[in-house]
Predict the 3D structure of the following.
Amino acid sequence: MFPFLRSFLLFCVAALTLPAADRVPQLHLAGDSTMANYKAESPIRGWGMRLGGQFVDPTIVHNHAVSGRSTKSFVADGHWGRLLAELQPGDFVLIQFGHNDEKVDKPKTGTDVATEFPDNLRRMVADVRARHATPLLATPVARRKFDRDGRLVPTHGAYPDAVRTVAREMAVPLLDLERATAAWLQQEGEEASKRYFVGLTPGAHPDTPAAGPDNTHFLDPGAEHVATLAAAELRATGLPLAHWLK
């Protein structure tokens, strides 16, 4: 069966299981460079670019993620306000931050993990709920860093646990992408996992950092795999949105 016809039939079947008056829920993504959209000429692919392919209708996903943003700067720069303006009752918002909140040496970006970071997450959750939509929290995806014994090294400090704590406190569904991606990278191993990350010479492309090899941002195979992990985490929540996954 042609791929387009298969997707169309899956969408029709899914639609028939809901009352005709129901609107298809939309999924809005708020996050950083690991999730963001990139131009075709960039080697980087955010996993949010590939999440739509996990749904019977890819247009369900609206990727608002922006490179370099934290919970603080995403709000301060107006991205959060624009996302909220698009929300309709019944929609979902997946929030993934941490990579840039860690940059406490940058006052306009970094957030304290014990105070400002969880407080920002709480406000985001409250904002979404105030619009009769459903928030979801995600821990930040793991970086590719191994020790001499081939064990993956956690790099996000207490930020993932802060996300988990807010999720428990506020009864928010959690996509634990740090654990899921760490398990995947550990299984792949140090050498095999290289094919999923940009890893260019520092500064070789405008989208890559100048400080060192890029073991944070994904090539297309990496973004695709993380999207499948995110879809699996979403399916495990049992939320109505999971009904629209392939």
About this structure: Helices lie at 3-16, 48-51, 71-76, 79-86, 116-130, 159-169, 177-188, 220-237. The domain at 23-244 is CATH 3.40.50.1110 (Rossmann fold). The first strand starts at residue 27 and ends at 31.
